[in-house]
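Here is one chain, start to finish.
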Amino acid sequence: MSEVLRQKVLDLLSEALTFQLNFVAPPIHVRGDGLFRVWAAVTARKIGVRVGPLPPDTAALYDKVRNEFVFLSSSFGNTYGEKAAIFHECVHAMADIEHTVARAVAEEAAAYVAELMYFRKLISGGRSARDAYGPGLEPPQAKADEIAERMLYVDGVWAVPVPDFLELQDIILRHRTYAHLTRADFYPNRGV
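Its structure:
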């Protein structure tokens, strides 16, 4: 277990802006109380945090079988983009804790929207990820950033428009990182 990374995850989940996100990307509802459950599970060490090898093009992941976050290095989480990536993985942990039944690609899409909403709020002023990342912005992040831009200042629960959500899923399925996924695949959300 990496205590440094564990503390980064806990700090991120303790931030006030974590509780400002409240949107539905069917069937995932990303919200503060769901993310608080992730914080509680990490605090109670029901979810582990470690450094380890990852698949190509992957800097972080939440392993639903082992109930743990895995990062490439103990220094991960120092940049805004890395913090947003941790937040993305926290959405997967939330879905696992809540036994959410969702197609894997839908869960990925919800996690990308959360990642980019978090990123926009984290850097203040809502500056786009395209401005911050430049040419390093991956296609799923670019589409999620477009969605996040429209959601940024909405009060209350916001539903991701279905056409946008389906387009984001198509982009994810075409992306090299998700070559192993099909539209029919599910992630094993069995709880912690």
